[in-house]
Specification:
The chain is α+β, with helices and mostly antiparallel strands. The chain has a single domain, classed as 2,3-Dihydroxybiphenyl 1,2-Dioxygenase, domain 1, CATH 3.10.180.10. The protein contains 3 helices and 8 strands, in the order βαβαβββαβββ. It has an 8-stranded mixed sheet with strand order 2-3-4-1-5-8-7-6. A hairpin with a 5-residue loop joins β3 and β4. It comes from Streptomyces cinereospinus. This is VOC family protein.
């Protein structure tokens, strides 16, 4: 899989509704995972909120989104991140190193509970980035 760049939107509790709407608009396959299912927070008030959603359309668009993480305040002007994902670990780690130079890291680039290597940072201009490295298939 080649690396790809796509928008990652953050919502104030209505990510499911928004992503389902975008599926109606663009078509495609929508996958949703909640904080209860993949975030290790079953039985909590935020268990049904979306931790990660991804819409892949027949036109080749990919749109990702999630609800504001528990314990963080939603800020309209900061309601997006740019997501880099793929299975070329060397390429993606190189991007990570360059993006974090002079920036800040909010989630270190390391193995996560869902099995991928993932990190979040803001570059020196304050732009939010997420990097997700999956294992190569076959």
């Amino acid at each position: 899989m080649a690396s790809r760049l796509n928008p990652y939107l953050v919502f104030e509790g209505d990510a499911r509704q928004a992503l389902e709407f975008y599926q109606e608009v663009f078509g495609g396959t929508l996958s949703l995972g909640t904080y209860g299912e993949i975030g290790g927070r079953p039985g909590t008030p935020d268990a049904d909120k979306i931790m990660h959603g991804m819409l892949e359309t027949p036109s080749g668009f990919t749109l990702m989104g999630a609800d504001t993480p528990p314990g963080e305040d939603f800020q309209r002007g900061n309601a997006f991140s740019i997501s880099l994902s793929g299975d070329d670990a060397s390429e993606l780690r190189g991007y990570w190193e360059r993006l974090t130079a002079g920036g800040s890291v909010s989630v270190p680039l390391e193995k996560q509970m869902w099995g991928d290597v993932f990190g979040m940072c803001a570059d020196r201009f304050g732009v939010a980035w997420m990097v997700n490295i999956t294992e190569r298939q076959g």
